[in-house]
Write a structure and sequence with these properties.
The protein is 78% helix and 0% strand. The protein is an all-alpha fold and 272 residues long. It has 2 domains: 75 residues, no CATH class; 194 residues, no CATH class. The chain is flat and about 65 Å long.
Length: 272
């Protein structure tokens, strides 16, 4: 009974959130374009599905994913587990002793990103638009590696308590340098890759992981240290996709060494 009540409350909240979007779209269609909507009943039914789906999705997050993320973080930082792994008391632990946390963070970031619907859609569209030059799986794996590394590094930041802006500023400095040398074809896609990774599958899990980790590590605050993993998950896919483009260029140059080839700029775009 409590679950049903909670579900209805989340669905009602979702309806309130979606209502302004629906009003804006219908008003713009009617008052600016001055035309009635085609398939109006179908659109209304679709909005109902969106509201119900969002509500049930939020229930799932609250009931399953957030508790699961906190549980995993607590188990990986449990004093008994850490003592059995490294043979030290909690007060004597250093950042290297949390290696299981880093491995789990990298694995969960990589696996959830591969399953991200938004990334799958963008990868398929990029493959079509580029005429097959950008592989679907190549792009998905490149983005997933970036998210895995980013989430793992974000967990390192939480454990050590280092300031967030050091990592973000350093990361974007790397992006700026990479942008100057990466193929023009891959640069816009790399920047968009950071956005498509932070969607329905990835964000709930890594947010729960960050909050759980900050609550479990001594001396950390859930409010000050628990958030920020999503920023790492947005930033590092840009770096990994740009690196994917640069490695493709390097591979192309090696394969054509010893024979005539096009200009450097042509090689950059053709390598993908």
């Amino acid at each position: 009974m409590e679950l049903i009540t909670t579900s209805m409350q989340f669905i009602a909240d979702s309806a309130v959130d979606v209502l302004p979007i629906a009003v804006l779209l219908f008003a713009f269609q009617r008052l600016v374009i001055c035309e009635s909507l085609a398939n109006g009943k179908q659109i209304v039914v679709g909005f109902v599905f969106v509201v119900v789906g969002l509500g049930l999705f939020l229930v799932g997050l609250e009931q399953t994913l957030f508790p699961l993320g906190r549980l995993m973080a607590q188990q990986l930082t449990d004093p008994a587990f850490l003592y059995a792994s490294v043979g030290k008391a909690v007060s004597d632990l250093v950042w290297q002793d949390y290696y299981w946390v880093y491995l789990f963070a990298a694995a969960i970031g990589f696996s959830t990103t591969l399953a991200e619907p938004a990334l799958i859609a963008v990868s398929m569209k990029a493959n079509t638009v580029s005429g097959g030059a950008i592989g679907v799986w190549s792009l998905r794996v490149a983005v997933a590696i970036g998210v895995g590394v980013g989430v793992s590094l974000g967990c390192f930041r939480i454990i050590t308590g280092l300031p967030l802006h050091y990592f973000i500023a350093g990361g974007y400095l790397v992006v700026i340098v990479q942008t100057a040398f990466a193929p023009k074809l891959i640069v816009p896609l790399a920047y968009d890759s950071g956005g498509v990774t932070t969607s329905t599958v990835t964000v709930p899990l890594i947010t729960a992981l960050g909050l759980g980790l900050s609550e479990a590590v001594p001396g950390r605050s859930a409010l000050l240290d628990g958030f920020g993993l999503v920023a790492f998950a947005c930033l590092f896919p840009i770096i990994s996709v740009l690196a994917y483009g640069q490695l493709a260029v390097l591979r192309e140059r090696i394969s054509v060494s010893g024979r005539d080839s096009g200009t450097p700029e042509e090689e950059k775009d053709n390598a993908l």
